[in-house]
Each structure stands twice: as structure tokens, then as C-alpha cells.
Specification:
The complex is a heterodimer of chains A (79) and B (959).
Chain A: H1 2-19, H2 23-37, H3 40-51, H4 59-65
Helix pairs in contact in A: 1-2, 1-3, 2-4
Chain B: E1 19-24, E2 27-32, H1 37-43, E3 69-70, E4 89-91, H2 95-110, H3 126-133, E5 172-174, H4 184-193, E6 198-201, E7 208-211, H5 227-231, E8 237-239, H6 240-245, E9 250-255, E10 264-270, E11 273-279, H7 292-296, E12 311-312, E13 321-322, H8 325-343, E14 348-352, H9 358-372, E15 377-379, H10 386-395, E16 413-417, H11 421-424, H12 426-437, E17 441-445, E18 454-455, E19 458-459, E20 462-464, H13 471-484, H14 490-496, H15 499-510, H16 516-523, H17 527-539, E21 543-547, H18 549-552, H19 557-570, E22 581-583, H20 590-595, E23 602-603, E24 607-608, H21 612-622, H22 634-643, E25 648-652, H23 656-659, H24 663-671, E26 675-680, E27 692-695, E28 704-707, E29 712-716, H25 728-738, H26 748-758, H27 767-773, E30 776-777, E31 821-826, E32 851-854, H28 856-861, E33 869-873, E34 878-885, E35 893-897, E36 925-931, H29 937-949
Parallel strand pairs in B: 1-4, 14-15, 14-25, 16-17, 16-21, 17-20, 21-22, 25-26, 26-27, 31-35, 32-34
Antiparallel strand pairs in B: 1-2, 3-4, 5-8, 6-7, 9-10, 10-11, 12-13, 12-27, 18-19, 23-24, 28-29, 29-30, 31-36, 32-35, 33-34, 33-36
Helix pairs in contact in B: 9-25, 9-26, 10-19, 13-16, 13-17, 13-19, 16-17, 22-24
Classes of the chains: A mainly alpha (79), B alpha/beta (959).
Bound molecules: iron/sulfur cluster (3 copies) and FE2/S2 (inorganic) cluster.
């Protein structure tokens, strides 16, 4: 869906910045960046996308997303 | 209450560290070398009569009223132009001096109207005061001779020397019949403002003040800053509001609510009516100067379109219905609770305002985190300076500029990147220009030839007109030159920075592909110019970088900020006066909004929400459990809304529909929400999609603090009762009560105490402290009890400075055959941001509409002539506006401002954004431009929709 496209684009942009530092250093920094700045539903979105094949993701972004902590589930009626 | 009076020392302070001692009227006084006798006398309270001198400008020595006698010297020198020297014995009053002064005054008064009783300056006129001071009792010359006072002589013949009033400027008048030709206005325009709009035309008796070449004020170069009005000792130049109302009876010092310069003003009042705003000399950001917005454009505060009653409606197609505060607040509470029950706690959020005070911003994020129980809070800094926060934090460890504004006085080189200070930060621009006229060098990196590149007595050494979107490549190429030509400040790098990172970075920038020659292909910048600019920056002495939204609003915004930090570190231009990295912030309290924890991932003082120690501290203080996960940013909220997982938003003092990119996406997001709450002064564009409208208050109606671009916290003081009933912080407090929070703030100072208790960099900040010091720059804590004008003096906040690799990644927004031009956006002086305030003042006289600037070459190709309606299309949408043909923009680049909603400039901008912060890429959009015959269908439809949406139902007649 369109929403996933946007997340893929954002993840790829982040990966591009860290790429210059080489894979070993880049991957954990990309993961940390996503962990620190993306709200759980966005992280769930990108994880879903990866689970369904991860099309369009930069290899570094993909490697980083695999390292993300699972995002907590939020459901209605808990407020 | 009384008027805040400031001492006029007659001539500017001397900066010399050497002192001299002299005796004035028997009193010994020690002053810095270079101080005038006039100023030295004032230091000990002796007011020597004067007319042509005032301490905002250099002495001129023309009126001869300030004469003194110096023992052992012949004659009667003017005290304003005579420097104090060791051992001088000065007399300011004796019979000879008295005689001379009376003679001078007599001449002045014989060519001046005697309508003091009905004059606007009555009670505040230096000519009147001086007549009193010298004991003038009678004027021997009569008024029949040659004069400038009367339009006709007694026999009815026209008086050629007489000139009519010039009332063209909307805010002040010029009445030549009252002018004493003291030249203060001319010098103020030159020295304080730096515009050089005024001259003295003619000689001797003929001489008169003239804007430009005998033009009207409105048609001249004048930018309406008002410096001349303030300098004028008579009623010749007077504020129209003063003429209209009369002399003020009390004044209150407060802070401008327009831009990030943060000028301090005296609000001069009669009761609760503002008579005029006069910049405050002790204001450390502005030093007694201001621009047209702060000084004059405050009429919006009482504009008839201001909404004063809360309003609600069920659907956005309904007309608004006025209601009580109880009902409006109750509606927000019940709707948000319903939404959270139905769609999950995370389905709501809010936006804090960079126009509101620190205290108000802090409360909004507190309400969202502690009341709604979510971290979905963001602020409009997202769309302007979020990359500054991220980039500077990575390099130095703090998310703020490194200097105070005074620092510019010690700069030898200024590198201005993607900023247009004369329009966006006018008062600071005046200070820059002053330093540039005194010899500092200027480098401008901007796609457009901004005014600073070439203006009165200023010429940039280098202008690098890069193609929009290539900042990183240009800055990395500058670093290439510095490293490969051996211009690195090795001592600084070795002592202050992480060496491994530096070495890796140096190798990276040295690669051939980063050389000026290699990048020229896509940056469009002449490599020789780029090399020369890099050398000048590295070797020209104290070099300071000033940058603006042209840096941050790009897909590589954060990378550019890091590239800037790298340049400053590699040349050692940090940690002292005259150097540094200085973001020029847009809105008045952008810095404050960021400091106060407005971002979804961090609490006040830039501490991540997942940090357990910090979060626990807040939880204990607030008595509420906080979510440790980062929340949604503005663009993410809109995405989530379109997707259906985000349904309610509380927006304080922002107009995201007009200010955020990709208007269609924003409106789709807003339209998908079930409860949009807008708190603002006017029915702004976002309010077209709102269900609840809470009327906000102006900066004149509240107490609080703003933090300007130099981290300076200044007080905003209430001068009138809120017309809407509540200050904005009180409205947030009412909402909080609805969400079960037990807040009991009686005054904003209590909120600041809470901020200080929870935020290490604000530890010693309090209203009392700011009151005592006038203002304070954070960090203000035990290590820096008086605040920190200049940061990173000995070590960086993070310890060692960190060089980051800044690989240039071209934006996805490329030009191609369909969209061959690059659009970039900006702002102009007389308007402010989305213009909601300035459009409701006479500032519209300078900017009635947004125009599209296009190079003559591109215009000709398309058959476009000056003033034609043109259609501008991008892949996101299209809009139409009128063309302005100019070579300020390079071929291939077009430019517009975004002050008027009708322009819909953001219909064209795309949803691309900065990789790190999602700050939108306003500054680059690929477009096509062609002739059209008027506004687009979309603009017309929108106009109709906006009209319909603003309807307010007539109140039923009371029974
Ligand atoms: S208002 Fe400012 S720019 Fe205009 S003439 Fe006066 S000092 Fe110059
Ligand atoms: S307009 Fe005012 S400041 Fe200017 S020369 Fe005349 S009296 Fe002096
Ligand atoms: S808008 Fe900016 S420069 Fe102008 S008076 Fe206000 S703070 Fe100063
Ligand atoms: S004040 Fe010194 S000559 Fe006018």
C-alpha cells in the first residue's frame, strides 16, 4: 500500500546517509535512528513490509530493520 | 506605572579598554578612551544641551548647542565631537556659553512653527526641552523672513521653501516644516539600519531631508524600520499612531512576537491602548533597533477579523456556532475521549506553537503526554529548523546556535548560506551590514542574488549561486579545498575533536569526486570562485557561519547542517567571539518550542523519551505514567490520518494547512480527522477543517518568555487584558482540567519554575533572574550561573567535536523534460510567515501578492512578460500567480514567497523531506511554468471553500 512506500522511501534515505561509513558501522546506526524517531505504528508498518518481502528496501535499510525491537501493540479501548 | 525612560548619552559608547580621567564642572570622571566629553558628562549626570547628537549614531557636530569651555584651550568646542582626554578641565555652563546657546536656539525657533500645544511631540520634543534648558525667553527675529514654516507669506504669495507633509508611509509622517536639519534621521538610516534611504538635499537654508531622489517615503528605498522616526528630536518624523492618540503615559518592556531575532521593545501605552512600540536600547538582541514588523505591524491585535468567542460545529461544511468556553472545552474533552476509546489511545495528538511562549508550549506538550497519554506532539519547527537540532547535536552535542548576536561585531568573514537576513532577520541584518561596512568580508551561498550580495556600501566577496538542492556538494567541496590546500587548523582539531572521525572525514572530502571542479557539473558553481571562497573562510580571520531555511528545508537538510559544523571545526572557528555556527530562526520562539520538548521523541532539554531516568523524573513530578516510545511527527500524523489511525488533533497557534508542504496531502489528512481543534487569533486556513475553534490571545495580552535564535530567554509582558478572555496557557489549563489533570498554575512564572526543575540547562532560570539580568542565554545552571553567550569555549557539550561524513545524495526531486525548472521559496521583509498577522496590517502596502520571480531568459522562452499570470505546475499540483522578471534568480531557477493563502504555493511543493527529521523539502521542487489567464480552478474552488468554511451562524436574538 501507499503508506508502506513512504516508509520504504524514508528508510532508504536514512540508509543513504550512513552508507558512507560502511556496512558494519552503518547498520546499527540506521536501526537506532529508526528506533529513536519512528513511532511504533511506523515501525510495525515497516516490519510488516519486510515480512511480506521488503520490496524496494535498500540492503542496508533492510539489514537495519531486521534488528529493530518489536514495536509494542496498541489496541483500542485501552485509553 | 510610569514610562520606562532611557538615558541618551549623546554619543555611542567607546569599546576601548584604556581609560582617561578628566574633570567636568569640578567632578572627576573616568571613561574609556575615545568617549566624547558629552558622554563623559552624562556618565556623571550632567546633561549638556544638544540637538544633533544622540547615542545611536556617531556625533555630527552641526547644531553648536553643546558647546563647552576647556581650560587652556581657545574657543568653545562642541562636546559631542571632542574626545575626553586625561587631565582636561571642562566647564559646561558660564555666561559666555549661555549667550552662545541662546543665540543658537533663537535661530532654530525663528524657523520653527510655534504650534507646540497642538503638536504630536508636545511633551516629548527635544527642541522644546532645549528651548527650556537654555532659558530662551524671546525670539528677536520675528517670523516674517525666509522660512520653511508657512505655505504662504503674509501677502499670500506661495513660499517656495515650504514643503507639504509626506504621509505616504502608512505608519509615520514627515512634516518638513518642523525639521531642524539635525541630520539624525539620515545618520540613523545609514548607521543603524544601513539602508541609506535618506539624504540632505540642498545646501544651507535650502537643505531639507529627502528620501532618495526627492521621492515619497513609500516609493523610496525606505524599508520603514522607523530608526529615523526614533532618532528625530522633533515632530518632523512622527508615528501616525502617536499623532492619532497622544503621548503615552506608561510603558512596559516586552519582546517582539514576529521573528527569531527577538527584539526588545517598550510598549508605550495609554491605559490599555498601545500608542507605539519603541525598540529598547537595553535589549541585547536588537540594541535599540527594530524592523517594520515589530515596530509598526501590531494592528492585527485588535483587527476586526480576530475571533473572540469559542466556536464549534459538527461538520466542517456547517457554519460555525459561537458558544461558551465550557461547551467548547467540554466538546474537545468528550470527542478526544471518544476517539481514544474507539480508535486507540494513539489516535490523538497535538501541535505546539513557535509563536506562543515557552510556558505555553511546555504546557501543551505536557497536556499531550500526561493528559492524552501519548507522545504525538510536534511543532512547526519540524518544517523549518528540525535539521539544525539534529545536525548540531550530532556534531557538538547541543541543538542550538553557538553565539550571541553581539559576536558579529568581531567577525572578519561572514559566510551566509541559504538565508536572506535583510528580509527574514532584518535587525540582525542591520548589525551584519554595520560590520561589513567596517570591513568584514562576505561570502553568500544562495541560488538567488539576495539583497545582501550587493547593497549600499556592501559587496559580497563571493556569491556562489548554486542550484537548489546541492548545498552538501558545495560545502563538502569547500572542505575539500581546506583539507587539500593545507588550511586545516590542526591545533584545534587535535585538541577539540575526535581524531579518528576527523581522519576518516579528511580522507573522504579529499577524494577527487568532492573537488570544486568535479561537483561544478551539478552545483553550477564556478570552481575558482568556490576555491577562493573556501580560502577566505579558512584564512580570513574570525569566520562566522549564518544559515537559514535554505539549508534545512531540503532532503539533505541535516547533512548540510553537519557539513557546516565540519567547516567550522576544521578551521577552528568555534568557541570565541566573532566565529561560530548560527542558525537564523524563522518564528519568534522556534528555539524555545524546540527546547521545551515539543518533539515527539524528546522531553525538554533534548532528552530522549526512552531514557528511563529522565522519564521517571517527569513521571514523578507530573504524577502520570508516560509512554516510552516516540510519537508521530506532523507529516506522520497526516499519513496516519489518511490511513485511518489518527483522528483528533489540538493545534495551538499554527497554520499547518498553509505552512506545510503538499497542501492536498495536508488537507486530506485534516479532512480525515474527526476532531480538529484550532486555537488561534484568526480563522486561519487550517481552521477551515476544524470542528472546535478556541480563540487565542496576542503577545500583548500575556506574560511569559520567548527564546530567540541566540538562546536568549526574554520576558513577554502583558500590557492589556486578553480580548478573548484568556491567555493561551490558561486555555490549555482549562483543557487539562477536562482531562482530569489537577493543574493550578496561577502565573506563567510557576510554569517556568517547573521547567527549571525538570531541565538541567534551565536549572537557574526563573522570571526573577530574567527580570534582574534583562535576559539570559541558556545553558543557565550552576556551571554557567549567568547564562552562556558563547558556547563550546573550552570543550564541546558532547566532549569532543564529531566530524560526520557528508555524502551528497541528490534529491529525488530532479528536473526533467516535464518539469525543467527548479522552484525555491522564501519570505520578504514586510510579511511574516503565512502572513495571518501581517496581512491584517498596513504592511500589505509593500507586498500585496506573492509573485513568481523568473529569469528573463526563461521568461522569454515561454513568452512571459512582467506581470503576466503564469501557471506553475509540479508533480504534486498546480497554481497560478503573476510573474516578476528578474536576473536575481539564475536561469533554470524560479522563486516565490508564500505569504498569501490565495497563492497556494504549497499546492506545488512535494512531500519529500529531510532524511533525519522529515523536515519538508520546500526549497526544491521541479516545476514547469507557462502563461495562463488567471487563477487556477483549484485556487478558485479553494477560495469558495474557504469562504464557506468561515461562515459564522448569526446569533439568535435573545428572548
Ligand atoms: S524608516 Fe528606516 S529605512 Fe526608512 S528612512 Fe527611516 S531609517 Fe531609513
Ligand atoms: S527629520 Fe527630524 S531627525 Fe531628520 S533632520 Fe529633520 S529634525 Fe532632524
Ligand atoms: S520581526 Fe524580528 S527583527 Fe523585526 S522587530 Fe520583530 S524580532 Fe526584531
Ligand atoms: S549636539 Fe553637539 S553639535 Fe549638536
Amino acid at each position: 500500500m501507499q503508506q508502506h512506500d513512504k516508509l520504504v522511501m524514508m528508510a532508504n534515505q536514512i540508509a543513504k546517509f550512513f552508507e558512507a561509513q560502511g556496512e558494519v558501522r552503518a547498520v546499527p546506526q540506521i536501526a537506532k535512528h529508526i528506533q529513536d524517531f519512528w513511532d511504533p505504528r511506523m515501525r510495525r508498518g515497516i516490519l510488516e513490509h519486510v515480512a511480506s518481502g521488503g520490496a524496494g528496501l535498500d540492503p542496508l535499510a533492510l539489514a537495519a530493520i531486521r534488528k529493530l525491537h518489536p514495536a509494542p501493540q496498541v489496541s483500542a479501548h485501552q485509553a | 506605572m510610569t514610562l520606562v525612560t532611557e538615558i541618551d548619552y549623546g554619543t555611542p559608547a567607546s569599546k576601548s579598554e584604556k581609560t582617561v580621567t578628566l574633570t567636568i564642572d569640578g567632578v572627576e570622571v573616568t571613561v574609556p578612551e575615545g568617549t566624547s566629553i558629552m558622554r563623559a558628562a552624562m556618565e556623571v549626570g550632567t546633561k549638556i544641551p544638544k540637538l544633533c547628537a544622540t547615542d545611536s549614531v556617531e556625533a555630527f557636530g552641526s547644531c553648536r548647542l553643546c558647546l563647552v569651555e576647556i581650560e587652556g584651550r581657545a574657543g568653545t568646542p562642541a562636546s559631542c565631537t571632542t574626545p575626553a582626554m586625561n587631565g582636561l578641565v571642562v566647564h559646561t555652563q558660564n555666561s559666555r556659553l549661555k549667550q552662545l546657546r541662546r543665540g543658537v536656539m533663537e535661530l532654530y525657533i525663528s524657523d520653527h512653527p510655534l504650534d507646540c500645544l497642538t503638536c504630536a511631540a508636545n511633551g516629548d520634543c527635544e527642541l522644546q526641552d532645549m528651548a527650556g534648558a537654555v532659558g530662551l525667553r524671546d525670539v528677536r527675529y520675528g517670523y516674517d523672513g525666509a522660512n520653511h514654516v508657512f505655505a504662504k507669506s503674509k501677502d499670500g504669495a506661495a513660499n517656495d521653501a515650504w514643503m507639504p507633509k509626506d504621509e505616504t508611509n502608512p505608519y509615520f509622517t514627515y512634516d518638513p516644516s518642523k525639521c531642524i536639519v539635525c541630520n539624525r534621521c539620515v545618520r540613523a538610516c545609514e548607521e543603524v539600519q544601513g539602508t541609506f534611504a535618506l539624504t540632505i538635499a540642498g545646501r544651507g537654508f535650502e537643505s531639507r531631508v529627502s528620501p532618495g531622489m526627492s521621492e515619497d517615503f513609500l516609493d523610496s528605498e525606505c524599508v520603514s524600520c522607523g530608526a529615523c522616526v526614533q532618532a528625530c528630536p522633533t515632530a518632523t518624523l512622527s508615528e501616525k499612531s502617536l499623532i492619532d492618540i497622544g503621548q503615552p503615559e506608561h510603558s512596559v518592556v516586552t519582546t517582539c512576537a514576529y521573528c527569531g531575532v527577538g527584539c526588545a521593545f517598550k510598549a508605550e501605552m495609554r491605559g490599555e491602548e498601545v500608542v507605539r512600540m519603541v525598540p529598547y536600547k537595553d535589549g541585547k538582541a536588537n540594541r535599540g533597533h527594530s524592523c517594520v514588523k515589530g515596530r509598526f505591524a501590531w494592528g492585527y491585535a485588535t483587527h476586526k477579523e480576530r475571533i473572540l468567542k469559542p466556536m464549534v460545529r459538527d461538520k466542517i461544511t456547517d457554519p460555525w456556532r459561537e458558544t461558551t468556553w465550557e461547551e467548547a472545552i467540554g466538546r474537545v474533552v468528550s470527542e478526544f475521549k471518544r476517539i481514544q476509546y474507539q480508535f486507540g489511545r494513539e489516535a490523538v495528538g497535538g501541535i505546539t506553537s513557535s509563536r506562543c511562549t515557552n510556558e505555553e508550549t511546555f504546557l501543551v506538550q505536557k497536556l499531550i503526554r500526561a493528559g492524552f497519554g501519548v507522545n504525538n506532539v510536534d511543532t512547526c519547527a519540524r518544517v523549518c529548523h528540525s535539521p539544525t537540532g539534529y545536525g548540531l547535536r550530532t556534531a557538538f552535542g547541543t541543538s542550538a546556535g553557538t553565539q550571541d548576536f553581539d559576536s558579529v561585531e568581531d567577525s572578519d568573514v561572514m559566510l551566509v548560506i541559504g538565508a536572506n537576513p535583510t528580509d527574514a532577520h532584518p535587525v540582525f541584518a542591520s548589525r551584519m551590514k554595520k560590520r561589513l561596512r567596517a570591513g568584514a568580508k562576505l561570502i553568500v551561498v544562495d541560488p538567488r542574488r539576495i539583497d545582501l550580495v550587493r547593497s549600499a556600501h556592501i559587496e559580497a566577496s563571493h556569491h556562489l549561486p548554486l542550484l537548489p538542492g546541492t548545498n552538501v556538494a558545495v560545502l563538502t567541496a569547500m572542505a575539500h579545498v581546506i583539507v587539500t590546500e593545507g588550511l586545516v587548523n590542526e591545533k584545534f582539531v587535535r585538541e577539540r575533536c575526535e581524531l579518528d572521525d576527523f581522519q576518516e572525514w579528511a580522507a573522504f572530502v579529499s577524494e577527487e569526486r568532492n573537488s570544486p571542479e568535479a561537483v561544478a557539473k551539478f552545483t553550477g558553481v564556478d570552481p575558482a570562485e568556490l576555491r577562493a571562497a573556501a580560502r577566505l573562510y579558512a584564512t580570513g580571520g574570525n569566520a562566522a557561519i549564518y544559515y537559514g531555511l535554505g539549508v534545512t528545508e531540503h532532503s539533505q537538510g541535516s547533512t548540510t547542517v553537519m557539513a557546516i559544523a565540519n567547516l567550522a571545526m576544521v578551521t577552528g572557528n568555534l568557541g570565541r567571539r566573532g566565529v561560530g555556527v548560527n542558525p537564523l530562526r524563522g518564528q519568534n520562539n522556534v528555539q524555545g518550542a524546540c527546547d521545551m520538548g515539543s518533539f515527539p521523541h524528546e522531553l525538554s532539554g533534548y532528552r530522549h523519551i526512552s531514557d528511563d531516568t529522565t522519564r521517571t523524573m517527569f513521571e514523578e513530578f507530573w504524577g502520570a505514567k508516560l509512554n516510552p516510545e516516540p510519537g508521530l511527527r506532523i507529516p506522520n500524523m497526516l499519513d496516519a490520518a489518511v490511513e485511518g489511525t489518527f483522528k483528533g488533533i489540538y493545534i495551538q497557534g499554527e497554520d499547518i494547512l498553509q505552512s506545510d508542504p503538499d497542501t492536498r496531502h495536508v488537507s486530506a489528512g485534516l479532512a480525515a480527522m474527526e476532531c480538529v481543534v484550532v486555537q488561534d487569533l484568526f480563522l486561519n486556513e487550517t481552521a477551515n477543517y476544524a470542528h472546535v475553534f478556541l480563540p487565542g490571545s496576542t503577545f500583548l495580552e500575556k506574560d511569559g518568555t520567548f527564546t530567540n535564535a541566540e538562546r536568549r530567554i526574554q520576558l513577554v509582558r502583558k500590557v492589556m487584558t486578553p480580548l478573548n478572555g484568556y491567555a493561551d496557557w490558561e486555555i490549555t489549563q482549562l483543557l487539562a482540567h477536562g482531562f482530569g489533570l489537577d493543574w493550578k498554575y496561577a502565573h506563567p512564572s510557576e510554569i517556568m519554575d517547573e521547567i527549571a526543575a525538570l531541565t538541567p540547562t534551565f536549572k537557574n532560570v526563573s522570571f526573577k533572574k530574567i527580570e534582574e539580568m534583562g535576559s539570559v542565554q541558556w545553558p543557565c545552571n550552576d556551571a554557567n550561573p549567568e547564562g552562556s553567550p558563547i558556547m563550546h569555549a573550552t570543550t564541546f557539550a558532547r566532549g569532543k567535536g564529531k566530524f560526520m561524513l557528508t555524502e551528497y545524495v541528490p534529491t529525488d526531486e530532479r528536473t526533467g523534460p516535464r518539469f525543467p525548472l527548479l522552484l525555491t521559496t522564501g519570505r520578504i521583509l514586510s510579511q511574516y510567515n503565512v502572513g495571518a498577522q501581517t496581512r491584517r496590517t498596513d504592511n500589505v502596502m509593500w507586498h500585496e501578492e506573492d509573485r513568481l520571480e523568473i529569469h528573463p531568459h526563461d521568461a522569454e522562452q515561454r513568452g512571459i512578460k512582467e506581470g503576466d499570470w503564469v501557471r506553475i505546475q509540479s508533480r504534486a499540483g498546480e497554481t497560478a500567480l503573476r510573474a516578476l522578471i528578474t536576473d536575481r534568480v539564475a536561469p533554470g531557477v524560479v522563486y516565490t514567497t508564500f505569504h498569501h493563502p490565495m497563492t497556494q504555493a504549497n499546492v506545488i511543493t512535494t512531500d519529500f523531506s529531510d532524511w533525519a527529521t522529515n523536515c519538508p523539502e520546500y526549497k526544491v521542487t521541479a516545476v514547469q511554468v507557462g502563461l495562463s489567464n488567471g487563477p487556477t480552478q483549484y485556487q478558485e474552488d479553494y477560495e469558495a471553500f474557504a469562504q464557506a468554511s468561515r461562515r459564522i451562524a448569526a446569533v439568535e436574538a435573545a428572548e
